[in-house]
């Protein structure tokens, strides 16, 4: 799952990884944020889901609104989501290879001696993914705010990031950090490990960076389905901790007891079907895009800076990549801006205000009125 190494075994530069994986994160966000919102709202629902209340669960206050307003209501917290998704993709695509190298350097002999050459390599690949997943806890505040905007916008109404930190304390944004790490460790292990197993045993590939697009497609599906299934129970617990009101003191064990007692064991897999259904296209989309853009930025970007005589074809490919990446950021802004404008006429009526309206109003206030706000 890690980005490929260029010919000769040299890894792509950090700049290329940031640009390529960041652009893939934005593109993934634009396409899959609405589906993620649906999954989060289903996981947060504590009652029975039926045809009668499904629209209310998914669209909340916009259940009776026109179809375009319903669609835009699935983009709450887009700013927080963009920050989280881009940072996560940059960290995940760029971080796992470094952890893999560190494990190989410090104890590669032990891994190969214990598990054998083939399994040792796969286990190191999976363990590096697990360490990467645990480290993602640093990004938890952005994930918490994204989930709250998706499922509990009232908790953020009228407050920006710095106002939230002042009012609630930074610790409130790290609620559920232990459950997040507990979910990420096996989830990322299964993601990278499942991908490695598929490449080793199904395609007989020992150099994972040499896999074709089709091979990466299948390996990504295998790893991602394994990851989401393994992490699903703890993911539901983590989501419920994070989307609660800031003053809530309910812990993870209390949530687990209540879920078992009131909703049954099946509640630990709520929202799993939408996630499974989106795993294939989501990972193939972001993975393939990152694998395409990172080499472009790494191979052509540096050479164009240092070598003025580089071919016109390389310049054209780099230009296309830059334009595509910039376009993704522009599209992200336009979706947020359009969602603000489409509901602006209701800002004067507090009863109809949801999280998106508050974001719009905060952005629209004069600078003097939002001093200290995000």
From TrEMBL:
PROSITE patterns in alphabetical order: SOLCAR
Topology within the bilayer: Multi-pass membrane protein
Compartments (UniProt record): Mitochondrion inner membrane
Residues annotated as transmembrane: 276-298, 318-336
The organism's place on the tree of life at top rank: Eukaryota
Transferase as UniProt keyword: no
Gene Ontology, cellular component aspect: mitochondrial inner membrane
Family: Belongs to the mitochondrial carrier (TC 2.A.29) family.
Protein name: Mitochondrial carrier domain-containing protein
Organism: Dioszegia hungarica
């Amino acid at each position: 799952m890690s980005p490929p190494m260029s010919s000769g075994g040299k890894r792509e530069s950090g700049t290329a990884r940031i640009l390529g994986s960041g652009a893939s994160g934005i593109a993934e966000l634009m396409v899959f944020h609405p589906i993620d919102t649906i999954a989060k709202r289903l996981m947060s629902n504590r009652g029975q889901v039926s045809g009668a209340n499904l629209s209310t669960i998914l669209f909340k206050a916009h259940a009776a609104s026109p179809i375009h307003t319903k669609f835009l209501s699935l983009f709450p917290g887009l700013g927080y989501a963009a920050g989280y998704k881009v940072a996560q993709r940059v960290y995940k695509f760029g971080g796992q290879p470094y952890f893999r190298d560190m494990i190989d350097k410090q104890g590669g002999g032990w891994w190969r001696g214990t598990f054998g050459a083939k399994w040792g390599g796969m286990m190191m690949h999976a363990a590096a993914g697990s360490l990467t997943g645990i480290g993602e806890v640093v990004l938890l505040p952005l994930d918490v705010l994204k989930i709250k905007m998706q499922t509990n916008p009232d908790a953020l109404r009228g407050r920006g990031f710095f106002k939230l930190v002042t009012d609630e304390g930074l610790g409130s944004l790290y609620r559920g950090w232990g459950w997040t790490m507990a979910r990420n460790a096996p989830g990322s292990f299964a993601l990278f490990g499942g991908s490695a197993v598929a490449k080793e045993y199904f395609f007989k590939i020992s150099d994972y960076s040499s896999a074709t697009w089709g091979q990466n497609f299948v390996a990504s599906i295998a790893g991602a389905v394994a990851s989401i299934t393994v992490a699903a129970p703890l993911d539901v617990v983590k989501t419920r901790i994070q989307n609660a009101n800031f003053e809530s003191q309910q812990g993870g064990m209390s949530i687990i007891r209540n879920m078992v007692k009131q909703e049954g064991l099946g509640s630990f897999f709520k929202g799993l079907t939408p996630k499974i259904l989106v795993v294939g296209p989501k990972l193939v989309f972001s993975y393939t895009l990152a694998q395409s853009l990172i080499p472009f930025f790494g191979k052509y970007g540096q050479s164009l800076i240092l070598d003025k005589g580089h071919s016109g074809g390389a310049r054209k490919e780099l230009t296309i990549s830059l334009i595509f990446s910039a376009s993704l950021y522009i599209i992200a802004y336009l979706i947020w801006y359009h969602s603000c404008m489409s509901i602006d006429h209701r800002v004067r009526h507090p009863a109809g205000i949801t999280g998106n309206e508050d974001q719009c109003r905060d952005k629209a206030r004069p600078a003097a009125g939002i001093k200290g706000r995000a």
